[in-house]
Specification:
157 residues, mainly alpha, AhpD-like, globular
């Protein structure tokens, strides 16, 4: 599979990508664990069918010490015993925030209240930011058909 557009090599796209990457890097200072963030990125990428992002974030999670079991079960997190209640709340928020068109009103009050039980206001802002940024990257990569499979952990650090 070959990408429709060399997004990384296009000057116009490069300007946009620079800012999107910068937005994503602000989350490095978040008090939301990188593990939770990577689980969220993987789940959104699964929903959106973004092979490149799923490739990247599964490998980054593994390199950060995440277990293969949890990486493999993130798609079925509701039926797995390996996730904390806080992670489940973040994953529910991710799913609802990614599938906005599937539910009138978008994210339910119940999903938000559940996340608020586990995360303070700054952390909730960071969860929303993770969801927004990964969905932007997913859409960009799916539209131009950037394939996954060649990413190496730490490649973009």
């Amino acid at each position: 599979m070959e990408a429709r557009l060399d997004y990384l090599g296009n000057p116009s796209a490069g300007k946009f990508l620079k800012h999107l990457v910068s937005a994503g890097r602000t989350l490095l200072d978040s008090s939301v664990s990188m593990t939770t963030q990577e689980l969220m990125r993987m789940r959104a990428s699964q929903i959106n069918g973004c092979g490149l992002c799923l490739d990247m974030h599964t490998k980054e999670a593994a390199a950060a010490g995440e277990s293969a079991v949890r990486i493999n079960l993130v798609a079925t997190w509701r039926d797995a015993t390996v996730f904390t209640d806080a992670e489940r709340a973040a994953l529910e928020l991710t799913e609802q925030g990614t599938r906005l068109a599937d539910t009138p009103g978008g994210v339910s009050d119940e999903a938000w209240a559940n996340a608020a039980k586990h995360y303070d206001e700054d952390q909730l802002a960071d969860l929303v930011s993770v969801i927004a940024v990964i969905n932007a990257f997913n859409r960009l990569n799916v539209i131009v058909r950037r394939p996954g499979g060649d990413y190496e952990a730490g490649q973009l650090s």
